[in-house]
C-alpha cells in the first residue's frame, strides 16, 4: 500500500467492509486522505489499437511509444486487449506470453523519457520472420493497449 503522508489525517476516509469508518486505521480503508496515492496525468493514460505487421522480424519490435519526459523511470500499468480474439484473453497485464518455450512476448521497456510497448520474438524453431503460416495468432492481427504512467512527486 502507498506510504502514509500524514498518519493522523482523518479528513476523508472510506473504510473497507467490516471496519467502522470512525475507528478504522488507514490500512483498513479503501480510501484515506493520509495516503499518497499514485497520480496519473491525463495525457499519460490511454488506449490505442495497433495492427501487427504480417511479417515480424526476430528481436525487439516497438509497437507503441508513449513519451513522458519525467527524467526518471516511472511506475506503469499496461494491459493487452486481444481484439480479434486470437489468444482467448482479454486485458491481460504486460508482460504477456503464451508460448512455451517462450519465443514471443509483449512487454514494456521503460526509460527516463519513454514507455515502449514492445513485441519481442525469438526464432526458436528456425522459421525466420514470424508470419501467419507459422504463427496464426499474431502477425496481421489487431491488439489494443490500455496504459497508465504514474507520476512520482
Provide an overview of this structure.
With 153 residues, the chain is mainly β. Helix content is 0%, strand content 42%. A hairpin with an 8-residue loop joins strand 5 and strand 6 (90-93). It starts with 12 loop residues before the first strand and ends with a strand.
Break the fold down into its secondary structure elements and pairings:
Blueprint: E1 13-15, E2 29-32, E3 39-51, E4 59-67, E5 76-81, E6 90-93, E7 104-110, E8 114-121, E9 142-151
Antiparallel strand pairs: 1-2, 3-9, 4-8, 5-6, 5-9, 7-8
Give the quaternary arrangement of the chains. single chain
User: Spans of 5+ residues with little confidence (pLDDT < 50)?
Assistant: none
Task: Tell me the total number of β-strands.
Answer: 9
Task: Describe the global form.
Answer: elongated
Number of domains: 2
Care to give the gist of this entry?
The chain has 153 residues and is an all-beta fold. The chain is built from no helices and 9 strands. The chain has 2 domains: 37 residues, no CATH class; 113 residues.
Based on the model shown, name its key terms.
2 domains; 4-stranded antiparallel beta sheet; 153 residues; 3-stranded antiparallel beta sheet; 9 strands; mainly beta
Amino acid at each position: 500500500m502507498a506510504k502514509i503522508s500524514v498518519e493522523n489525517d482523518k479528513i476523508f476516509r472510506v473504510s473497507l467492509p467490516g471496519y467502522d469508518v470512525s475507528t478504522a486505521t488507514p490500512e483498513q480503508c479503501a480510501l484515506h486522505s493520509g495516503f499518497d496515492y499514485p497520480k496519473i496525468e491525463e495525457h499519460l493514460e490511454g488506449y490505442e489499437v495497433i495492427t501487427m505487421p504480417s511479417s515480424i522480424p526476430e528481436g525487439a519490435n516497438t509497437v507503441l511509444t508513449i513519451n513522458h519526459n519525467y527524467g526518471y523511470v516511472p511506475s506503469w500499468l499496461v494491459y493487452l486487449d486481444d481484439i480479434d480474439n486470437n489468444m482467448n484473453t482479454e486485458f491481460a497485464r504486460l508482460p504477456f506470453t503464451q508460448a512455451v518455450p517462450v519465443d514471443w512476448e509483449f512487454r514494456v521497456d521503460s526509460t527516463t523519457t519513454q514507455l515502449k510497448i514492445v513485441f519481442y520474438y525469438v526464432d526458436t524453431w528456425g522459421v525466420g520472420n514470424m508470419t501467419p503460416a507459422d504463427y496464426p495468432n499474431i502477425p496481421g492481427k489487431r491488439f489494443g493497449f490500455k496504459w497508465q504512467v504514474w507520476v512520482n512527486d
